[in-house]
Design a protein that fits this description.
The complex is a heterodimer. Chain A is α+β, with helices and mostly antiparallel strands. Chain A has eight helices and four strands. By secondary structure, chain B is an alpha/beta fold. Chain B folds into three domains: about 5-225, Rossmann fold, CATH 3.40.50; about 235-320, Roll (Ubiquitin-like (UB roll)); about 325-410, de novo design (two linked rop proteins). Chain B has 18 helices and nine strands. Chain B has helices spanning about 15-20, 25-30, 35-45, 60-65, 90-95, 95-110, 125-140, 170-175, 210, 215-220, 220-225, 260-265, 295, 325-340, 345-365, 370-380, 390-405, 405-410, and strands at about 75-80, 115-120, 155-160, 205, 235-245, 250-255, 275-280, 290, 315-320. In chain B, the strands form two sheets. In chain B, strands 6-5-9-7-8 form a five-stranded mixed beta sheet, sandwiched between helices. Chain B has a four-stranded parallel beta sheet with strand order 3-2-1-4, with helices on both faces. In chain B, helix 2 runs parallel beside helix 6 (about 95-110) and helix 15 (about 345-365) packs antiparallel against helix 16. The longest helix of chain B has 18 residues, at about 345-365. Classes of the chains: A alpha+beta, B alpha/beta. The interface between A and B is large, with 40 and 53 residues.
């Protein structure tokens, strides 16, 4: 039970919030996503054991919400908002250029496993488009120059960590 | 004036010490010195209406909670997800204690045992910060056991969603909090009733901005609040301005300000070389209107916007200029609602799917003019047929774009000037 041990404190804190353990399914799935990079079958079983419901029920919750990924993502998961207000500010063109720059298809991951790019529904930052979310952090008022610098910075961070 | 965005007058009001030096938690102190019913009456007298979009009188909503039930809850709707809406995030980032205080006043008024703040999952970092501010409230006796020696206990928690617009609908939010699929419930029973709320207990669900108004109302009095704004739209409102204007952003204005004031005085007018064409005053889900002088001079209130065939709702004002193809707007917004339909009610699940398919056909230049009537008909048959408002929300962008901008659709069908160009 890797999760139950590794994240014992956080799990305990979440369980204590609710009169019914089942309510902790979402926070625990966030931990699974964080640990494995996606909601893996293994992670789903662990959550089911902790909150004592069927794994099938946990899987149906995981499938309902877009932030739980049903397949592994790149190290940097870039979600570009392309909804209408953002698109009025050039988000569609930005999204297209970003995919071309990283040589990925929609929802695809770059060959080095670093970047996944996909469009996402409204992120509540309509006045700061083009914008994206990368691993829970918002990057706003972007253009491709800023984006190229960010990508460079992220690549360096990973290379530094390896060496 | 700023009731909500007090950080514009008082720098760093997000910090506990700064908040305390500026009447922090004075509203809660006053509330717990009164009977719960008196607090409800004060909020009723203020004329405060729900800021999430529906505009229901807040005090009246609180008064629906049966006092004899032993367990009650407050759920704060911080699931802000509608294209065009981005105010609650700014409130929680810059003035978090005012939300926490407002939620606690509400909790006292209905004698709730816990407050759950439901944030959209993407507000992950914000939730971490909010948790720290909640800890500060606990450490200083404003949350937890025996709050301010009143004998009343109340816990405050954050809960993160995971990417589903539908969870901003109150009964879907409650299902999501219970660890179930975030789908709307059949009502009655309503959330305020036994059997209808969180864990079947009576529950008030209020928007972030709504609750952030409450500390001011308790401090200064409901009558003082009622004097701000207009007869039926009391107080201030945060207007989220986005799209084709020079200065996009959030503006807190007294109710009664006109579209012209927002778009020109604050928004800086249209982009150079362009003219305004249309406005969505209430986000992607509201009725679109052409930006005429009559519209520009209309006060942005609950009572005035119906006169121009729209609503103020959550006041998420999206502006489009003359470079915008309104057919494209309809298509873009429909893709949003198609993705966000939870799938529970057939008219919404199937309706959004087929609307999107036919819109794609129109966009590709392959459609007949009768296809425009077809989607109008599909949209009208979705109205009023679903458990929650999402079905109506998805119908509005079709019905009102066709009503006001039929030429933008006709251009794309066979024989139209854009038909050959395709998408």
């Amino acid at each position: 039970m890797a999760l139950a041990e590794k994240y014992a404190d956080r799990i305990e804190k979440h369980l204590a919030k609710y009169p019914d353990k089942r309510s902790a399914v979402m926070p625990l799935l966030h931990i699974v996503q964080e640990e494995y990079g996606w909601v893996s079958p293994e992670g789903i079983r662990e959550v089911a054991d902790i909150i004592e419901i069927d794994a099938t029920q946990v899987k149906s919750i995981a499938g309902f919400y877009t932030m739980y990924s049903e397949k592994p993502k790149g190290k940097f998961w870039l979600q570009v908002c392309t909804d209408m207000p953002c698109a009025l500010n050039g988000a569609d063109e930005f999204h297209k250029e970003l995919k071309a720059y990283l040589e990925v298809e929609e929802g695809g991951t770059s060959e080095d496993g670093m970047f996944t790019v996909e469009h996402v529904m409204c992120l509540a930052a309509c006045d700061k488009a083009p914008m994206l979310q990368c691993n829970f952090h918002y990057y706003e008022k972007l253009d491709m120059d800023k984006m190229k610098a960010l990508i460079e910075q992220w690549r360096n961070e990973v290379n530094d960590a390896v060496s | 004036m700023h009731i909500i965005f007090r950080e514009k007058d008082i720098p760093n009001i997000h910090e506990f010490d700064v908040y305390m030096k500026n009447d922090g938690y004075a509203g809660l102190k006053k509330a717990v010195s009164q009977k719960p019913a008196e607090v409800v009456d004060e909020v009723k007298a203020s004329g405060l209406r729900g800021r999430g979009g529906a505009g229901f009188p807040t005090g009246v909503k609180w008064s629906f909670i049966p006092q004899n039930e032993p367990v009650k809850y407050v759920a704060v709707n911080a699931d802000e997800s509608e294209p065009g809406t981005f105010k609650d995030r700014q409130i929680m980032e810059n003035n978090p204690h005012q939300l926490i205080e407002g939620a606690l006043i509400c909790a006292y008024a209905i004698q709730a045992k816990a407050v759950y703040i439901y944030l959209r999952g993407e507000f992950w970092e914000l939730a971490q910060e909010l948790d720290k501010h909640i800890d500060e409230a606990y450490e200083n006796g404003f949350a937890g056991k025996n709050i301010l020696d009143s004998g009343w206990d109340c816990d405050v928690y954050t809960h993160l969603g995971a990417g589903a617009y539908i969870c901003g609908e109150e009964s879907a939010l409650l299902n999501s909090l219970e660890g179930k699929l975030g789908q709307p419930r059949v009502r009655p029973p309503f959330p305020a009733q036994k059997g209808g709320g969180l864990y079947s207990e009576p529950t008030v669900v209020n928007n972030v901005e709504t609750l952030a108004n409450v500390p001011w109302i308790m401090r200064e009095g409901g009558d003082a609040f009622k004097k701000i704004g207009t007869e039926q739209s009391a107080g201030t409102k945060v207007f989220c301005l986005s799209g084709h204007v020079k200065n996009q952003g959030n503006y807190e204005l007294e109710f009664g300000a006109t579209f012209r004031e927002l778009l020109y005085d604050h928004g800086g007018g249209p982009l150079d070389g362009h003219e305004f064409k249309a406005v969505l005053p209430s986000g992607a889900s509201g009725p679109i209107v052409p930006l005429t002088d009559e519209v520009l001079d209309t006060p942005m209130t609950y009572e005035d916007t119906p006169k121009i065939d729209t609503i103020i709702g959550s006041a998420s004002v999206i502006v489009m200029d003359d470079s915008t193809d309104i057919m494209w707007v309809a298509s873009k917004v429909t893709k949003f609602f198609k993705h966000e339909s939870c799938g529970k009610c057939t008219p919404c699940r199937e309706g959004t799917y087929w609307l999107d398919k036919v819109l794609d056909r129109i966009m590709s230049g392959e459609a007949e003019e009768s296809d425009i009537d077809l989607i109008d008909n599909v949209a009208k048959n979705m109205q009023g047929t679903t458990l929650c408002a999402l079905g109506d929300f998805a119908a509005n962008p079709i019905i009102y774009t066709i009503k006001h901008f039929p030429e933008d659709f006709k251009k794309h069908v066979k024989g139209g000037e854009l038909a050959a160009a395709g998408d």
